[in-house]
Specification:
Elements lengths: L2 E5 L4 H12 L3 E8 L14 H15 L3 E5 L1 H17 L6 H20 L4 E3 L4 E8 L2 E8 L16 H5 L1 E2 L7 H11 L20 H5 L8 E6 L14 H5 L9 E7 L22 E7 L4 E6 L7 E8 L3 E3 L11 E7 L7 E8 L2 E11 L6 E6 L2 E7 L3
Parallel strand pairs: 1-2, 1-4, 2-3, 4-7, 8-11
Antiparallel strand pairs: 5-6, 6-18, 8-9, 10-11, 12-16, 13-18, 14-15, 14-17, 15-16, 17-18
């Protein structure tokens, strides 16, 4: 009998995933990952880990499976939290959930599961996996979940073929409503539990307080720039660099409209937290300068400074889930693309060069920020991803 270690989060999705694996005849073990032990920055009643751990214990008892708690807080701090601090300090926008899956769930957690004699690990992600043989080699595919409103493939965009070979996703073919119905029929205590929000296995955090643990408040200018700057005027783009160069602002191009507590607390496209009133339209962050500690903003979500025609991923940051589809130098391909969870897929052209991949959008994309992950798909399969450089 094959053994599967399930990451029981204390939520309905992983609960039903464990049940389905039992039904399929697997030897199932439940494991709860404790990734955080600092409650000072966690919002009360928003997915506190202690309550989740207790729910995970109860689910394991209801299902009649062995259960353990795995303390990964040291690894989480080193691999995820320190990474977040460094990225924000550099004026970039990290995605800790993507890193949590690559570095924690499908690395540290996977290795711990293997030590327990597991053949596979399983999670409650709304994604699917398929496999086929090619010249005697197994190729594993990461496919979008069938519930389009819950598809979580983006969060797994950094997985490797080996990690996928050891992964099972029991609920990826189900709708959320079907998962809750199964849980209700079984009488599981998580059947009506709200979906968790916030950081992976931590819960919802107060981001400013969280960042202030390492990044000290530092007052600086909020500058509003006009939507009529010369650099917004459409010009013929003759080189790949023309498509990916971000807008660059200077203090002389706008007026000071307020004060902030640290440019490293803000990200491109952000609206909340600026605390500047009296404008006909809301202000949005267009760019941050962490060296000069300046935030550049513009009025309205249709401000041209929010929209970019393309982006660039340097070669060291390009990752292929489908290694067999890795692009060759000079090659050009069409893919569907997204740069954040649940964002509708956008048609894009990828061009591979020695220095990296240039991506040109069919329609300008809003709020592109360095540090985000861009993920590209083909017919619902996630092919590759990379960290946006510019």
């Amino acid at each position: 009998m094959k053994r599967v270690v399930v990451g029981l989060s204390g939520g309905v999705d992983s609960s039903v995933a464990a049940h389905l694996l039992i039904e399929q005849g697997y030897d199932v073990v439940g494991l709860f990952m404790r990734n955080w032990n600092d409650e000072s920055v966690t919002i009360n009643n928003e997915c506190p880990w202690i309550d989740d751990s207790n729910d995970a214990v109860a689910i394991a008892e209801q299902l009649g499976i062995p259960f353990q708690v795995l303390d990964l807080s040291a690894q989480y701090k080193e691999r995820i939290v320190d990474y977040m601090f460094a990225e924000y300090a550099a004026g970039r926008t990290p995605n800790p959930d993507v890193l949590c899956n690559r570095e924690i769930k499908f690395d540290v957690f996977l290795k711990s599961a293997m030590q327990l004699g597991a053949d596979y690990v399983a999670t409650g992600h709304y994604v699917r996996k398929d496999s086929f043989e090619n010249d005697g080699q197994s190729i594993h595919q990461l496919l979008s979940g069938l519930d389009k409103s819950k598809d979580q493939s983006y969060f797994l965009c950094q997985l490797t073929q080996y990690q996928l070979s050891k992964a099972l996703f029991p609920i990826g073919h189900l709708q959320k409503s079907e998962v809750r119905a199964i849980a209700a029929k079984l009488g599981l205590i998580t059947a009506e539990k709200k979906d968790s929000q916030g950081l992976c296995f931590i819960g919802k955090v107060r981001l400013p307080e969280f960042l202030q643990q390492q990044l000290q408040p530092k007052k600086g200018k909020i500058i509003e720039v006009s939507r009529n700057l010369e650099q917004y005027v459409e010009k013929e783009k003759t080189t790949l660099q023309d498509w990916v160069e971000p807008f660059v602002y200077s203090e002389s191009e706008g007026e000071v409209v307020g004060q902030h507590n640290g440019a490293h607390y803000f990200t491109i496209g952000q609206r909340k937290g600026l605390l500047v009133g009296g404008k006909p339209l809301p202000l949005f962050v267009l760019a941050t300068d962490t060296e000069k500690n300046i935030i550049y903003t513009g009025q309205g979500e249709d401000h041209p400074g929010l929209y970019r025609p393309g982006l660039f991923i340097q070669s060291s940051e390009v990752h292929w889930i489908r290694e067999d589809l890795r692009m060759k130098e000079g090659e050009e391909r069409e893919y569907d693309l997204r740069i954040r969870y649940r964002q509708p897929l956008q048609k894009a052209t990828l061009v591979c060069q020695p220095e990296g991949i240039y991506i040109r959008f069919k329609s300008r994309l809003k709020s592109v920020s360095p540090g985000q992950f861009a993920a590209w798909y083909s017919e619902g399969e996630l092919i590759g991803s990379g960290v946006i450089n510019r």
